[in-house]
């Protein structure tokens, strides 16, 4: 593959690669402003009939905002959308769908308590004489699933389905009715290889019929396989439009992050020492983890990669007392800690950064200072016999906030008022208030901006070089590829492979993402 | 999950059968059967046709209100103002009927035709305000309905100075209070018909489907093009409409309009729904179980009265059963979760 320089690839609209089909959807100067955040700034985007146009960018780059506006789930602050040449203003998702613009969002728009058929027709139920025509609904749902080649029983409730099956229902919902624009937001994130293949076949069918497809993905492989053109977004702005077949990884990452790849990921000096964590044939009670063995030493960064729902998160959660263990052992610093409660694990020096900072990480209504000290509040450094040592608390938290460059530097501000990146910094500062031997980062850079990302990577490298063990659980493949000296790849609860040093390549890791003999 | 059938006499299998019964139908039908058996043993007067008919009549009002409460709970809310809605309906309908009856004493049905709709609409108005507050202004259901509970109660007291409203035509009480046919009283028929109507609404109309969808996943419903605000509004309006009908029937039964007829209704109706498996988080619940839930509380109350249980003890027993049912239901959900692996 030819690797063009970044200047050559970041083309101006005049020299942009163009697809052959007629212009279907077009935005001019599209902007979305939220209080304190410009989610989208002057974005020009075009979609032609019969092309797959990929959107590429980090979390928070504006991809989701763009597609939610195009799908009618959100309204722009400024700018214009034209659909088949005419100005377009969506009233809501229903109106967009009526025009043939359908979206598959990453957050599922399914109601768990309803059946597949009921979900497929939600908002557009067939009615006869004022009553629901349930027989027809079921019949059409079955026909649709069959046409798409999904082996699903239309009568089942969505809450009983696996994530991949829910994804299929979501896709089926988009394919219902006359389609002219299909928006797919990381549709393969939870699909198996075979399901991915059948999705790609569907996409090709749709392309051939002149449907324009907007496709969000993080996977280079998919860009090459399915996309025609790629629009790269960064911090809400369009940074380039490239030909999908000519783009290589280094260039795309550089466009996406705004700096050369060598500046994003630090060089880490690994010095593996004694084994800190040793997991032996662990199986959780809920079956998310099956017969997993792995080890983490002091002074190294070990990655766990895999699809959403492969059990990579659950491995750490089972060690941390968040999931019941059915079989196997967990050894930490030579001690059998199987089934220990979270508080005891923390005291032993095991710290876990949860992937969802809103749901599990932060008390959003309270200040940065209270959040940072929460897990260490009972220790002598912050607590006297009766009263809290608020002066010491403030000093410690200021020092950490300074180290992590919290912005704005206002420790009394409530967490909800910080940006995602700064919320993540507070969450990490919280881990640093205690003596920790092993840091477990579960999706540490979800939804943070580039500079925070770089800061977090630097911190992880520093922790490792200072002699701590780091376990990095991530769906962001470059993260695992560039930071870890060892990596495990998981699939459906099992460890598929363990890779060392320069064995950790995109092709190798991805080849173990799917169903295949280890 | 399919298990190989063993000989049914094996005690192991019998207990497994019981567990499977519990898993498939839940705790409520089992509790109801236990209560029926227990009270039949405790008192000879319990399991008689007259007493059972009596229980059904007593619970018909709660049943109707619980049906409305259930609809609101499906959308992940609840309505604390159902008691005040009853009071408002009762007082305004009685005032209307009494005024018309005084003017046209020889035309009782005219008085009923004027007074009953007045009461119904006044009760409905409470629901309209609830619906506007929750759906349009986005205030939490707890606050809106709690506030409206006080406002409605206040209005009912103010209109009547706290005394019962007399002068309702005899025909109203005779037809809708103590009347009936085929051995069942009018309120029982009303509850039956309304239960069927709500069943059809929830299972066979778009609006019903949207109640479940909005409560199950508000965002998903919105992304699917469901008019979520209208759906929420309708939930409170339909709830108030049903409650108003219960209010009219209750007025007919009491033969007076009273401001304090519904004070225990909010909690009772929520309890009947919860014991019937209606989730407080929205999205789940079905009509037959809610009817059973209301009847169950009626049976327990009546059974304890017939068997001479102290009224102080009765309150405690009801509360304990509710907590027990909730715990059993949670236990059941976990068992199902484990089995489906």
UniProtKB/TrEMBL annotation, chain A:
One Pfam family here: ABC_tran
UniProt GO molecular function: ATP binding
Database matches in Gene3D superfamilies: P-loop containing nucleotide triphosphate hydrolases
Name listed for the protein in its UniProt record: Sugar ABC transporter ATP-binding protein
Keywords: ATP-binding, Nucleotide-binding, Repeat, Sugar transport, Transport
Keyword Repeat among UniProt keywords: yes
SUPFAM superfamilies referenced in this protein's UniProt entry, alphabetically: P-loop containing nucleoside triphosphate hydrolases
Organism ancestry: Bacteria, Pseudomonadati, Pseudomonadota, Alphaproteobacteria, Rhodospirillales
Taxonomic source organism: Dongia sedimenti
SMART domains per record: AAA
Top-level taxon of the source organism: Bacteria
Domain called ABC transporter: residue spans: 25-260, 274-517
Automatic annotation (TrEMBL), chain B:
Keyword Transcription: no
TM helices/strands, residue ranges: 21-41, 61-78, 85-103, 109-129, 136-159, 179-202, 230-249, 312-331
Signal peptide (residue range): none
Membrane topology type: Multi-pass membrane protein
Cell compartments where the protein resides: Cell membrane
Domain of life: Bacteria
Key words of the record: Cell membrane, Membrane, Transmembrane, Transmembrane helix
PANTHER family cross-referenced by the UniProt entry: ABC TRANSPORTER PERMEASE PROTEIN YPHD-RELATED-RELATED (PTHR32196)
Protein name: ABC transporter permease
Organism: Dongia sedimenti
């Amino acid at each position: 593959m030819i690797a063009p320089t970044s200047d050559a690839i970041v083309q101006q609209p005049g020299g942009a690669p163009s697809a052959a089909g007629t212009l279907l959807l077009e935005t001019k100067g599209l902007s979305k402003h939220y209080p304190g955040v410009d989610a989208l700034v002057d974005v020009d985007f075009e979609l032609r009939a019969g092309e797959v146009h990929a959107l590429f960018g980090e979390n928070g780059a504006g991809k989701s905002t763009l597609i939610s506006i195009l799908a009618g789930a959100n309204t722009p602050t400024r700018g214009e959308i034209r659909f088949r040449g005419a100005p377009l203003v969506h009233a809501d998702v229903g109106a967009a769908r009526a025009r043939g613009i359908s979206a598959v969002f990453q957050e599922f728009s399914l109601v768990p308590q309803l059946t597949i058929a009921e979900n497929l027709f939600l908002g557009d139920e067939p009615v006869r004489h004022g009553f629901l025509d349930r027989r027809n609904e079921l019949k059409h749902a079955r026909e649709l699933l069959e046409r798409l080649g999904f082996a699903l029983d239309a009568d089942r409730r969505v809450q009983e389905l696996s994530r991949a099956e829910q994804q299929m229902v979501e896709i089926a919902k988009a394919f219902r009715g006359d389609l002219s624009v299909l928006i797919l937001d990381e549709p393969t994130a939870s699909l198996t290889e075979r399901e991915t293949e059948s999705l790609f076949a569907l996409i090709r069918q749709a392309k051939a019929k002149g449907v324009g497809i907007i496709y969000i993905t993080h996977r280079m492989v998919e860009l090459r396989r399915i996309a025609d053109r790629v629009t790269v977004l960064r911090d809400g702005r369009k940074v380039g439009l490239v030909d999908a077949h000519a783009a290589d990884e280094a260039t795309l990452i550089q466009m996406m992050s705004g700096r050369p790849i060598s500046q994003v990921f630090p060089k880490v000096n690994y010095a593996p020492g004694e084994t800190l964590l040793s997991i032996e044939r662990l199986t959780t009670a809920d079956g998310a983890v099956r017969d997993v063995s792995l080890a983490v030493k002091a002074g190294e960064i070990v990655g766990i990669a895999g699809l959403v729902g492969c059990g990579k998160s659950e491995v750490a959660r089972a060690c941390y007392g968040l999931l019941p263990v059915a079989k196997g052992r967990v050894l930490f610093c030579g001690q059998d800690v199987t089934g220990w409660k979270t508080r005891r694990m923390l005291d032993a020096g095991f710290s876990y950064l949860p992937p969802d900072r809103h749901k599990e990480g932060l008390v959003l209504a309270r200040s940065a200072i209270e959040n940072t000290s929460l897990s260490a509040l009972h220790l002598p450094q912050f607590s006297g016999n009766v009263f809290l040592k608020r002066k010491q608390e403030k000093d410690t938290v200021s020092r950490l906030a300074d180290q992590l460059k919290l912005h704005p530097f206002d420790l009394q501000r409530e967490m909800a008022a910080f940006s995602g990146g700064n919320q993540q910094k507070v969450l990490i500062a919280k881990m640093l208030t205690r003596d920790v031997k092993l840091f477990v980062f579960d999706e540490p850079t979800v939804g943070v901006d580039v500079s925070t990302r770089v800061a977090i990577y630097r911190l992880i490298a520093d922790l490792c070089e200072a002699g701590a063990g780091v376990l990095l659980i991530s769906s962001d493949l470059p993260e695992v590829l560039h930071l870890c000296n060892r990596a495990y790849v998981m699939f459906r609860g099992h460890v598929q492979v363990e890779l060392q040093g320069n064995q950790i390549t995109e092709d190798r890791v991805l080849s173990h993402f799917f169903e295949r003999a280890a | 999950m399919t298990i190989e059938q063993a000989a049914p006499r094996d005690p192991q299998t019998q207990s497994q059968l019981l567990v499977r019964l519990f898993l498939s139908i839940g705790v409520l039908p089992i509790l109801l059967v236990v209560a029926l058996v227990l009270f039949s043993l405790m008192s000879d007067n319990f399991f008689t046709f007259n007493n059972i008919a009596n229980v059904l009549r007593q619970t018909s009002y709660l049943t109707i209100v619980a049906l409305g409460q259930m609809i609101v709970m499906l959308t992940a809310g609840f309505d604390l103002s159902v008691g005040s809605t009853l009071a408002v309906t009762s007082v305004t309908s009685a005032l209307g009927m009494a005024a018309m009856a005084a003017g046209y004493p020889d035309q009782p049905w005219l008085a009923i035709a004027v007074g009953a709709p007045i009461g119904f609409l006044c009760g409905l108005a409470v629901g309209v305000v609830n619906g506007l507050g929750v759906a349009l202004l986005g205030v939490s259901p707890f606050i809106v309905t709690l506030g409206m509970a006080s406002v409605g109660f206040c209005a009912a007291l103010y209109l009547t100075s706290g005394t019962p409203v007399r002068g309702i035509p005899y025909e109203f009480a005779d037809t809708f209070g103590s009347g009936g046919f085929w051995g069942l009283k009018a309120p029982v028929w009303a509850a039956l018909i309304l239960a069927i109507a709500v069943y059809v609404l929830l299972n066979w109309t778009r609006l019903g489907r949207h109640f479940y969808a909005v409560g199950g996943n508000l965002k998903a419903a919105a992304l699917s093009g469901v008019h979520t605000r209208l759906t929420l509004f309708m939930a409170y309006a339909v709830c108030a409409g049903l409650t108003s009908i219960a209010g009219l029937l209750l007025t007919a039964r009491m033969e007076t309009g009273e401001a304090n007829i519904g004070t225990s209704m909010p909690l009772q109706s929520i309890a009947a729904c919860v014991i019937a498996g209606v989730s407080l988080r929205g999205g789940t619940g079905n009509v037959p179980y809610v009817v059973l839930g209301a009847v169950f509380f009626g049976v327990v109350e009546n059974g304890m009265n017939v068997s001479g249980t102290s009224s102080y003890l009765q309150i405690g027993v009801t509360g304990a059963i509710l907590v027990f049912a909730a715990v059993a239901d949670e236990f059941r959900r976990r068992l199902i979760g484990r089995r489906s692996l």
